[in-house]
């Protein structure tokens, strides 16, 4: 099923490219806007990268789901012998591969603009990599919950965005502790745990939301 | 094979249908007729398990269809609704690949079905560029390779030309002869074993 989802996502490469371009352009503009003060740039880089990744993932997935729903492809998911949770997990996996990894690549490419050393940028990208499955899962859940609403973006901001706060806090803690030369293993483990918890929560709630969306 | 007892459905305060009962055996065709908006598609979605029956009134091979066994029931269903379950951005060949990986069907079976529906010449055409009738033919090609005993079809003849309708009739007849069961919504007058008028 994951091959199928990768294929479907690849067919929507226009949307995918638009999301990646948004991420790259926003990152570039922010690096220009923040000036050349190295301390400010280093301080702002983690939160900027994380916020932009959250916005990119949370608002691109619902568009894809809407298109799938209009084509009746969500009916096919429910009628398929495999449980809907496999579909949701495959979708998350496909997004991490086709959207998450390119985002990391762009992040790595732009890290010199924020005066990040190799180690700092590797740490930052690692926190993002750990957070991507949760962000993608939340995007899927938000998309399913707002499938029949107009102006779903606002609802996603209200319903889903608060759930990303723990991820953001632990990721920033990892970066801050590393910057101060302290052991960042504990917040890193917490970040992974929260990410895993959010994936499980989103897949569980997503199955219910999927049925609800199809029944409407 | 499929039995419905006192099936009712309401949306808000509006009752779409109530106390519908039917019993279908192998080789039976149930035609659901009614004016636009009378609830034909909703009834079909309910029979396909896309809307969960609230009062457990559907029976498959004598077993009550409920939340817990709906997946087992759906393994027997082929559903073609108004939404054709086709990826609009895909080419016909891409759609075949998607089906191939999703249902583990040999490519030759898919191509044979496409030939039967006269769609073999459009393999490299984007689905969104196909006409409504061609999209319907592509969607109905599932009848040939998805081996399911209960077909639930929502106005399958809509959008098809005369030749397409002949192929459809032939396909439906063959399925019934092979012991399958069909429930379809239709506005056409054709011989059926059972009929529900909404």
Protein described:
- The complex is a heterodimer of chains A (216) and B (198).
- Chain A has 216 residues and is an all-alpha fold.
- Chain A has one domain (2-215).
- In chain A, 83% of the residues lie in helices and 0% in strands.
- In chain A, α6 (118-145) crosses α7.
- The model of chain A has no long low-confidence stretch (mean pLDDT 89).
- Chain B is built from seven helices and nine strands; from the N terminus they run βββαββαβααααβαββ.
- The model of chain B has no long low-confidence stretch (mean pLDDT 88).
- Classes of the chains: A mainly alpha (216), B alpha/beta (198).
- At the A-B interface, α1, α4 and α9 of A face α3 of B.
Describe how the helices and strands are arranged.
The complex is a heterodimer of chains A (216) and B (198).
Chain A: H1 2-11, H2 13-33, H3 38-70, H4 73-79, H5 84-110, H6 118-145, H7 152-159, H8 165-179, H9 185-215
Chain B: E1 2-11, E2 14-24, E3 29-33, H1 40-47, E4 58-60, E5 63-64, H2 70-74, E6 77-80, H3 92-103, H4 107-116, H5 132-140, H6 142-145, E7 150-154, H7 162-177, E8 181-185, E9 194-197
Parallel strand pairs in B: 3-8, 3-9, 6-7, 7-8
Antiparallel strand pairs in B: 1-2, 1-4, 4-5
Q: Major beta sheet of chain B, specifics?
A: 5 strands, parallel
For the record, give the distance between the C-alpha atoms at the N and C termini of chain B, rounded to a whole number. Answer: 22 Å
**Largest sheet entry of chain A:** none
As an assembly, this protein is: heterodimer
Helical amount of chain B: 25-40%
**Average pLDDT reading of chain A:** 89
| Helix fraction of chain A by DSSP (H/I, runs of at least 4) | over 70%
The helix/strand class of chain B is alpha/beta
Name the pair of protein chains with the most residues at their interface, and give those residue counts: A-B, 23 and 25 residues
Taking all Cα atoms into account, the compactness measure Rg of chain A is 18 Å
- Content of β-strand of chain A: under 5%
């Amino acid at each position: 099923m994951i091959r199928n989802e990768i294929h479907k996502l690849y067919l929507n490469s226009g949307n995918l490219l638009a999301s990646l371009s948004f991420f790259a352009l926003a990152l570039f503009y922010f690096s220009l806007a923040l000036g050349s003060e190295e301390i400010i740039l280093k301080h702002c880089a983690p939160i900027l990268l994380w916020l932009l990744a959250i916005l990119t993932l949370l608002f691109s997935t619902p568009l894809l789901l809407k298109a799938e729903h209009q084509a009746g492809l969500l009916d096919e998911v429910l009628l398929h012998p495999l449980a809907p949770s496999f579909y949701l997990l495959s979708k998350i996996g496909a997004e991490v591969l086709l959207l998450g990894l390119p985002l990391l690549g762009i992040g790595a490419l732009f890290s010199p603009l924020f005066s990040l050393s190799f180690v700092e940028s590797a740490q930052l990208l690692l926190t993002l990599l750990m957070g991507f499955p949760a962000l993608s899962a939340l995007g899927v859940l938000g998309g399913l919950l707002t499938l029949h609403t107009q102006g779903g973006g606002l609802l996603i901001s209200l319903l889903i965005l608060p759930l990303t706060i723990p991820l953001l806090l632990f990721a920033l803690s990892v970066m801050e502790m590393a910057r101060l030369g302290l052991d960042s293993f504990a917040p890193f483990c917490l970040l992974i745990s929260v990410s895993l918890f959010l994936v499980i929560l989103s897949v569980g709630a997503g199955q219910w939301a999927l049925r609800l969306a199809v029944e409407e | 094979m499929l039995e419905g007892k006192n099936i009712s459905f309401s949306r808000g305060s509006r009752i779409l249908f109530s106390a519908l009962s039917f019993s279908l055996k192998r080789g039976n065709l149930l035609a659901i007729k009614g004016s636009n908006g009378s609830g034909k598609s909703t009834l079909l979605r309910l029979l396909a398990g896309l809307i969960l029956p609230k009062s457990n009134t559907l029976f498959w091979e004598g077993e009550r269809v409920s939340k817990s066994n709906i997946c087992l029931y759906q393994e027997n269903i082929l559903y073609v609704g108004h939404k054709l379950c086709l990826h609009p951005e895909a080419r016909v060949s891409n759609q075949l690949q998607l089906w191939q990986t999703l249902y583990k069907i040999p490519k030759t079976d898919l191509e044979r079905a496409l030939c039967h529906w006269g769609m073999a010449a459009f393999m490299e055409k984007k689905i969104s560029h196909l006409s409504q009738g061609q999209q319907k033919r592509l969607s109905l090609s599932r009848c040939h390779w998805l081996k399911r005993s209960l077909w639930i079809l929502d106005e399958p003849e809509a959008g098809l030309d005369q030749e397409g309708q002949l192929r459809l009739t032939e396909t439906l007849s063959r399925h019934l002869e092979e012991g399958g069961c069909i429930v379809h919504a239709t506005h056409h007058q054709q011989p059926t074993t059972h009929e529900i008028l909404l």
